[in-house]
Amino acid sequence: MSDTPVIGVLALQGDVREHLVALAAAGAAARAVRRPEELAEVDGLVLPGGESTTISKLAGLFGVLEPLRARVREGLPVYGTCAGMILLADKILDPRSGQETVGGIDMIVRRNAFGRQNESFEAAVDVRGVGGGPVEGVFIRAPWVESVGAAAEVLAEHDGHVVAVRQGNALATSFHPELTGDHRVHRLFADTVRANRAARSL
Ligand SMILES: NC(=O)CC[C@H](N)C(=O)O
Question: Part of which pathway (predicted)?
Answer without folding.
Answer: Cofactor biosynthesis; pyridoxal 5'-phosphate biosynthesis
